[in-house]
Inverse folding.
């Protein structure tokens, strides 16, 4: 074989090896995230960073609002973009707010779609409005949270799981 063919095969071997290594690293990272999600779900200690709102009024980027569910206490301060069914007097802030509110979390795992679903209800800080929450935490770290109430239209928030060490 001439030198060009040998060099070509060496370069090809390097590229294939690098691709395989990248694929293995990506898979390991995915497995680490899945293990962290499962661990957090068992403890029910979650810190989520919400990155967007999806509602009937379109998508809206968030600045990384944080939502916490730690030891069955829920904390959030999320902007609301939707329609309200009543006028709320005395409150100028339409955000959905809760600070360390005790919640009774019901959880289940969807094996087929690889996500945990948590359902709970909480009373908001501002006007004691009751909110129903359905939270999907996927094993890849993606989070989708639906919040609805009898006084407002439901809205979805999306983001990712942040694991605190």
């Amino acid at each position: 074989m001439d030198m060009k063919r040998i060099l070509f095969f060496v370069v090809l071997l390097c590229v294939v090896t690098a691709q395989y290594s990248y694929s293995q690293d990506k898979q390991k990272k995915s497995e680490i995230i899945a293990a962290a999600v499962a661990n957090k779900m068992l403890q029910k200690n979650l810190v989520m960073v919400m990155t967007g709102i999806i509602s009937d009024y379109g998508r809206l980027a968030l600045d990384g609002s944080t939502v916490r569910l730690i030891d069955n206490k829920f904390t959030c301060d999320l902007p609301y973009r939707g329609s309200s069914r009543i006028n709320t007097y005395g409150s100028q802030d339409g955000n959905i707010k809760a600070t360390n509110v005790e919640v009774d979390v019901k959880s289940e795992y969807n094996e087929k779609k690889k996500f945990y679903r948590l359902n709970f209800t909480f009373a908001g800080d501002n006007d004691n409005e009751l909110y129903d929450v359905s939270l999907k935490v996927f094993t890849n770290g993606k989070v989708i949270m639906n919040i609805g109430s009898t006084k407002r239209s439901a809205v979805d928030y999306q983001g990712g799981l942040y694991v605190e060490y």
Observations:
- The beta strands are 46-55, 58-70, 73-78, 96-102, 106-110, 115-123, 130-138, 142-148, 155-162.
- The CA atoms of residues 127 and 138 lie 32 Å apart.
